[in-house]
């Protein structure tokens, strides 16, 4: 069975500083990987996804993620955070052969200091 | 506006009561899912559907029923509410070719007392 671990529950970063969120996964086959963002009181919005090909994936809002098979990781990065990036971020792995089922990590809450 | 609509947004139930959480999408998506979100646990899949008339269990199905009589609607029924079902519930949908690119509703916050 697949699983996702996000080691950091909370991260605080200053506005303008860089951000990196960690994600480690366990999956028996080639993984389909996703990052979603949830603003307070809202549903989840897809930031980016990886299926195959280039291991550095670009997403919306200036985010990117790098797939490293050897480390079973899919870390999310942003070079310079904005106050509006304060949110909760979820990494997920997909079992696309079984109805597009997603398994989510526990989430990382990002706080942005002015 | 196209998207996933969930109702109600908030609900308080007494232990033992039943209710239905509604979910509707107008994007003609084949796949629909229900997740629950609990602090520190991310989202966990309750039930999902790959098309009208077809449903299956997810990771945490006990205490919940679903049906999919139309492409648009995917209601979630709580049969006899328990405090352990206090959570935020999200409905999501995608094309069968969407490869995990789900559109999420804004959620229903349920409290069982």
Radius of gyration of chain B: 13 Å
Residue-averaged pLDDT of chain B, rounded?
Answer: 93
Q: Strand-and-helix sequence of chain B, N→C?
A: EEEEEEEEEEE
Residue runs with pLDDT of under 50 for 5 or more positions of chain A:
none
Polypeptide structure, described:
The complex is a heterodimer of chains A (114) and B (113). Chain A has strands at residues 3-5, 10-14, 19-21, 24-26, 32-38, 44-50, 56-58, 64-68, 73-78, 87-95, 101-104, 108-113. Chain A is mainly β. In chain A, the strands form three sheets. In chain A, strands 2, 5, 6, 10, 11 and 12 form a six-stranded mixed beta sheet that branches. In chain A, strands 3-9-8-7 form a four-stranded antiparallel beta sheet, with no helix packed on it. A two-stranded antiparallel sheet of chain A has the order 1-4. Chain A is globular. In chain B, the strands form two sheets. In chain B, strands 2, 4, 5, 6, 9, 10 and 11 form a seven-stranded mixed beta sheet that branches. Classes of the chains: A mainly beta (114), B mainly beta (113). Chain A binds chain B through residues 4, 6, 9, 32, 34, 36, 41-46, 49, 51, 90, 92, 94, 96, 99-107, and chain B through 4, 31, 33, 35, 40-45, 48-50, 56, 58-59, 90, 92, 94, 96, 98-102, 104-107.
Question: Which tags fit this structure?
Answer:
heterodimer; A: 114 residues; mainly beta; six-stranded mixed β-sheet; four-stranded antiparallel β-sheet; 12 strands; 0% helix; 54% strand; B: 113 residues; seven-stranded mixed β-sheet; 50% strand
Question: What is shown here, in short?
Answer:
The complex is a heterodimer of chains A (114) and B (113). Chain A has strands at 3-5, 10-14, 19-21, 24-26, 32-38, 44-50, 56-58, 64-68, 73-78, 87-95, 101-104, 108-113. Chain A is mostly beta strands and 114 residues long.
């Amino acid at each position: 069975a697949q699983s996702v671990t996000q080691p950091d529950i909370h991260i605080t970063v200053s506005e303008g500083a860089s951000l990196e969120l960690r994600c480690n996964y366990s999956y028996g086959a080639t993984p389909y990987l996703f990052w979603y963002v949830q603003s307070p009181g809202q549903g989840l919005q897809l930031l980016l996804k990886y299926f195959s090909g280039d291991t550095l994936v670009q997403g919306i809002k200036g985010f990117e993620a790098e797939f490293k098979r050897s480390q079973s990781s899919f870390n999310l990065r942003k070079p310079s955070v904005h106050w509006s990036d304060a949110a909760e971020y979820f990494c997920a792995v997909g079992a696309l052969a079984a109805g597009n089922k997603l398994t989510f990590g526990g989430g990382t809450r990002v706080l942005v200091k002015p | 506006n196209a998207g996933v609509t969930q109702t109600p947004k908030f609900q308080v139930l007494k232990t033992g009561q039943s209710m239905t959480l509604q979910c509707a999408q107008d994007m003609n998506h084949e796949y629909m899912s229900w997740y629950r979100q609990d602090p520190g646990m991310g989202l966990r899949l309750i039930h999902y559907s790959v098309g009208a008339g077809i449903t299956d269990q997810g990771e945490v199905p006990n205490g919940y029923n679903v049906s999919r009589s139309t492409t648009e609607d995917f209601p979630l029924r709580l049969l006899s509410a328990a405090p352990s079902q206090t959570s935020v519930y999200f409905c999501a949908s995608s094309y069968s070719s969407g490869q995990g690119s789900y559109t999420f509703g804004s959620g229903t916050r349920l409290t069982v007392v």
